[in-house]
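Human: Note token order:
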Amino acid sequence: MKPDACYNGSGDGTRKQAEIWCKELQRQGHQVDLVSTWGSYQWKTYDIVHFFGFGLWNYEMINWGCGMNPNVVFSPVIDSNTPLWKYRLFSYIGCERLRLFSQNYAARCYRDNVKLFLARTQYEADYIRQYGIGADKIKIVPLSYREDRYDASIEKEPFCLFVGTMTQERKNVGRLIAAAKKYGFRLVLAGSPGNAASEKQLRAQIAGAPNIELKGFVSDDELCSLYNRAKVFALPSLNEGVGLVALEAAVHGCNIVITRLGGPKEYYKEGTAWLVDPFDVDDIGISVERALQTDHLQPKLREEIKQRYSVESCVEQLVKEYQKV
């Protein structure tokens, strides 16, 4: 094939999605260019021009890009709990001639210049449809976990692990800490605690609770060790698109407690994870306690995730959609 995709990243998670797909496409023998906005490219030579990430920059890039190559694919990456009717309403508010528009209005303006929209979940696909885009132009290609370094010889320990940016309100770490303090389960927090002020605030919430450990940043090797040792992984987010860290934890044999809001629940068959109300401290706490006491879901869940969401499987689906375009 000619070069398959080029990319413009925005945001760490969005960039990571593009980079994972890029690496696997290259491994499968396809040529892929990761595009810099300062670079010079022969746009007409690409089989596919694939844009990632939602923002006003898309208005210029997609309108301009489709004139040189009509085979435009777009992964908007929408993480929202806004009611669908409001989302649709916002997409009508603006004036293209006066260049007065939000990113939602811009998406409605350039929708006809995109041949294919890719969603990670049906939940996200429903949001994309609010721009007046037919279901035939929207396909679901799920995301994959990064790697599998599961070591079955490591015995699981009775603690709950969280991995993520703790300063993001949507990650809901405050309620997870409150649940750990109320129900007494051991909680390990790994990831960015932010600056000195935000870390101080986190430690104030923990208030010296002996069952809660704030690790902060960890290396990939230490993260792998935590995944392998943790009995439970919790991601009770207020707003989440997929929750790739939860998929990684599931592949490493963890029981999963995850938000019932948004798209993450679509990655787990019914009864294989605890779906919680992220606003309810008791629901979070009771679910973690039950997950800590449950042994029958693993390793079956691990095998299901490996089969459905390996990078090879997900990118094979991606290539099929590229070929249709």
User: Anything to note?
Assistant: Residues 7-11 have pLDDT under 50 and may be disordered. The first strand starts at residue 5 and ends at 7. Residues 12-27 form the longest helix (16 residues).
